[in-house]
Amino acid sequence: VHQSKMDFFCKLGYGKQDICKVLENLGQEALDDDVLKELIRMGSKPQALENQAQPSQLKLVARGSCGTTPGLKWLGEDGSDSSDSLRPIVIDGSNVAMSHGNKEVFSCWGIQLAVDWFRERGHTYIKVFVPLWRKEPPRQDSPIADQHILGELEKQSVLVYTPSRKVKGKRVVCYDDRYIVKVAYEKDGVIVSNDHYRDLQNENPEWKWFIEQRLLMYSFVSNRFMPPDDPLGRHGPTLSNFLSKKPVLPERKWQPCPYGKKCTYGNKCKFYHPERQYQAQLSVADELRAKTKVPSAAGKEERCRCS
């Protein structure tokens, strides 16, 4: 009996301590109505009513308010740009080197500039793919500048040579673009190249989507590696969000209404109205409908009474 009464009044929201006190005073066989009256007399309130009585700490903000609020972020984002939150980088070494050498010289310094740029941002996983035959002495038809940089990057476990060999005096070269796209896809990283890899896009639909969404193009301006601030276009993510695993959402900024006080959209207007912060935002059409409904409703009541 005691347990059933405890369960009953606990479901009503009363505390167990208050229920035990009342049952000790009135006895275990007391009627539910008597227990309820005693609880009310003691001043005990259900938890739901107590929560309603407490003042709410939430602040109401007027619609269209442009007050300064902290930027919204993805769940789990702590704001620090650590290496764990940055995507792996896979660099097309041949494309970068030839771009820095104006498509005439294989400039290894261009590869170093690109690697240094990503290191300064905090990226720890950086891989550069270059064909193995680039280790050979340069020739007139394929000049190479600053070739010693390739050896230094190889010692740092940054540069990876794709296989190549000679068969009967002819060089057999593996397709290094396939290595680049495959590693970047498996690591869920970013491809740094000005090549579109159209042949590989046609081979695999998953690679096609990945290349379209994760290809980072670049330019060299006065020996300065410069990727674009909007890698996927004007309406796409910023460069920081593009290179991050957990992008930060931008703050929402309200644009003032071009019609100002002459706007007739009311609460349907998507722009900011500073003069309507504390007013009921009804459109002109809605206000007219509200005014016409009152007399029409009164006329119907009179007709009913007359009938």
Automatic annotation (TrEMBL):
Cofactor(s) needed: Mg(2+)
- TM ranges are none
The answer to whether the entry has keyword Protein biosynthesis is no
Zinc finger spans (C3H1-type)? 251-276
Q: Superkingdom of the source? A: Eukaryota
Domain C3H1-type: from-to ranges: 251-276
Key words of the record: Endonuclease, Hydrolase, Magnesium, Metal-binding, Nuclease, Zinc, Zinc-finger
Q: Which GO terms describe its molecular function?
A: hydrolase activity; mRNA binding; RNA endonuclease activity; zinc ion binding
Which GO cellular component term is one of those annotated?
nucleus
| UniProt xrefs under Pfam families | RNase_Zc3h12a (PF11977), UBA_6 (PF18039)
Reply yes or no: does the keyword Zinc apply: yes
Identify the CDD domains for this entry.
Answer: PIN_Zc3h12-like
Q: What family name appears in the similarity comment?
A: Belongs to the ZC3H12 family.
The name of this protein is ZC12D ribonuclease
Instruction: Name the species this protein comes from.
Output: Illadopsis cleaveri (blackcap illadopsis)
**What is the taxonomic lineage of the source species?**
Eukaryota, Metazoa, Chordata, Craniata, Vertebrata
